[in-house]
Design goal:
The chain is mostly helical and 70 residues long. It is 79% helix and 0% strand.
Length: 70
């Protein structure tokens, strides 16, 4: 069964909130591979990067999110 983008985003956020950062990364990456400028996925990927201590990566996701949905 194929999930919609909203369903994948929901699963990603659920994983992130549970602390399953690897699974959240897989979900967010799947969304971004189909739509690199998806504002919510970019924002959440930025927050995930911060949680993982990858601050240099986080800013690029936040910039994409802002550009996509100012």
């Amino acid at each position: 069964m194929k999930m919609t983008t909203d369903q994948v985003l929901s699963k990603a956020l659920e994983s992130q909130l549970k602390g399953d950062f690897a699974q959240a990364d897989i979900y967010y990456s799947a969304i971004l591979s189909n739509n690199p400028f998806h504002p919510d996925a970019n924002f959440r990927m930025g927050t995930l990067a911060l949680q993982l201590g990858k601050t240099a990566n986080a800013s690029s996701y936040f910039i994409k999110a802002i550009d996509a949905a100012p």
